[in-house]
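Bumping with the actual sequence this time:
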Amino acid sequence: MTAIQGTVIVNADDFGLSTAVNHAIVYCFQQGLISSTTLLANFSGFEEACEFVRGQRLQDRVGVHINLTEGQPLLQELRDNSVLCDPDGNFRRQRPRILRRRDLRQIAAEVAAQIDRCRGQGLPLTHADSHQHVHTEPLVFSVVRRELRRAGIPFLRVSRTLAEDNHWSILKALGKRAFNGWIQLSGLRCTRHLTSITGFERVRAEGNWQTSSWEIMTHPILDERGVLMDHVERLPLEARLRQTFTGIRLASFAEAGRQQWRTA
């Protein structure tokens, strides 16, 4: 296989989180500011997001945003599991890293249910990532990779490869590299790099981005004034997207899947 040089995918996370997020993501698609999104199956904005996808014909631009850290699970059995959920039945943000077989079976069932709910809306699901990067936890990944392969979802997000300040400890960098290699060994496909707009701005300024493949992670939302913001970085988003990706053709995971594509 030969590498596809200069492949850039800008993904909007959290589609389905809320009406403000849904409208922001649709606006970004309409303006050509993003090229893909990932959908939360367990939030109140899910059905509205799916209606937007069908109305805007974005079916080949949507993946699943696996969620095990916020809101309520789709499955009642997880809500009753005190290791994974709090007394109100909401996902715990922090869980033990060592999980029981029962916990892993329930996580597998929940991941499958989230995928199936998206597929039930007629979405092929071209790729996957996860809310708050939960899939990068080793035991969770061992479950996620199996469910993605079962569902025929070919692409999975790598662990972030560029820090905002370009500084990671050697141990952390080696851990991320090992995890990203594990994705490929599992038979899943991925980009070479994952970073934020800030990280890509630095790389583009250095002029060496065109020899690799990139996923840029964003979190669009319209604030109370109707201004497009990144709700995680808490920064204005529209001008940054326009400036950073001017002159760059943004690809989708569906397009990447039709090519002989590797990560290096």
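The tokens above came from a reply further down the thread. The mean pLDDT is 93.
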